[in-house]
Design brief:
Beta-galactosidase, Chain A, domain 5; binds alpha-D-galactopyranose; five-stranded antiparallel beta sheet; 29 strands; globular; mainly beta; about 40% strand
Length: about 375
Amino acid sequence: MNYPSLSPVMVAATLAAVVSLAADRDSQPMKPTLTKATYGKLPEGTLIEQYTLTNAKGVTAKIITYGALLTELHVPDRAGQLGDIVLGFDNLESYLAGHPYFGATIGRVGNRIAKGQFTLDGKTYTLAQNNGPNHLHGGLKGFDKVVWQARPVRAKNGVAVRFTYTSRDGEEGYPGKLTATVVYTLTNDNELRLDYTAKTDKATPVNLTNHSYWNLAGAGDILGHELMLNADRYTPVDDTLIPTGEIAPVQNTPMDFTRPKPIGRDLKQLANDPQGYDHNFVLSRGDKQMNLCAVVHEARSGRVLEIFTQEPGVQFYSGNFLDGTLTGKGGQVYRKHYGFCLETQHFPDSVNHPNFPSTILRPGRTYKTSTIHRFSVR
Ligand code: GLA
């Protein structure tokens, strides 16, 4: 084979070009991109697509049409090194084999409904009891296990994809044909924005959320992550994790995250089994539409996650049920507390608690809610 010979001048020029290209990457924004690829196939033949969103700073989010589920999110650490900070798998088969809602869009109703029952406008509805005696995360085949229709949409300051799913009247026991959408937007300011809407033809409860498991270090347990929750109250639960109805102050309890503290600091005082946080916090509301929900800081990587939401609550779950039986991306074994969730939402079992903010959507009205995840370093 003949190799073209390079003169020393050409080598120097080439090197200079490479160096200046590298410098440009740091200083100058790249063009945001949005691509689509086949991710896998369901046993019945439906193709599942994966959308890859990359912003002007190189931050990348990947979402699949199965469960409108965030499979990867690569954000920089203090040194500018990108790392994947969400738990999940490398392939569709692993998601199909069963998992604790990694990255998924949750619906029709996120979190628990006591005994799988509620009464609306005088009629009693019975849902699957798929979590001990209770109904969890939309039932046996919730929105995390269905195929969503995806379409790229315009975004002012980044790239975006809209996922749409129509749930038939009576699906999983819920009344009304409900069309739900979630738009994932990755902005050039390193924000991952989730904008949800829903419409129904019969009154129904709706409570959509995202179930991403975060690990800002990219591996290991999350007990050292510092968490601040903008919540001075929470909803205590019984031993099946159903709210008692009380709204209690966090002060002088392990639930107090009003000032940042490591997740693991007071966790050992909790009495539940498996031990850890799995509680709904009542967010303190300011006068802004988008309220601060949480700030998380991981000291070694320097990564910071700030969450803003329009929802009244957030379920803080410290990955208590992870037990080392699942092996995820890159062969990582997911042990207890290797990821945490901050599920912005209405309170659990709201349909059975008239004193909680209502989750009922009626025909002619549009359900609309947004949550922003902002990434930075400190
Ligand atoms: C939610 C629940 C938890 C658990 C996880 C999934 O966060 O509140 O109890 O079921 O989902 O394992």
